[in-house]
Specification:
Number of helices: 4
Strand content: 15-25%
Radius of gyration: 16 Å
Structural class: alpha+beta
């Protein structure tokens, strides 16, 4: 990633490889899976975000829309080491172009 970002300011990737899974079908609820199977399942669903976490590469995930069924969709941007400013600027520009602060699903835990 360091070499990539010497030439490019940002990298864009999806957060998930498919629509978000149903509640309770991922993570700690999969007690029947071995640790290796659970890791494989996670990397199949979100293969791009762990690379940023493991490398320490600055990255940001931002909401980008909804599926036909109203499920959230998101994109991840990464930048060169120490360039969180560019990530925050891009996220701010996206939020101005596509405001998300007031979007709520039909069922939600918000008080407003």
């Amino acid at each position: 990633m360091g070499l990539f970002h010497e030439e490019y300011d940002l990298a864009l990737s999806p957060v998930l490889t498919r629509l978000p899974p149903r509640l309770g079908t991922q993570g700690g609820t999969q007690h029947h899976l071995t640790h290796a199977e659970s890791v494989d399942l996670a990397f199949d669903l979100f293969p791009f975000t762990p690379a940023m976490n493991m490398s320490g590469q600055p990255a940001i995930s931002v909401p980008t829309g909804e599926s036909r069924d109203g499920l959230p969709l998101a994109a991840q941007f990464s930048a060169r080491f120490g360039d969180e400013r560019t990530l925050l600027q891009v996220a701010g520009q996206l939020e101005q172009a596509m405001p998300w602060a007031d979007r709520r699903p039909g069922i939600h835990a918000s008080t407003d």
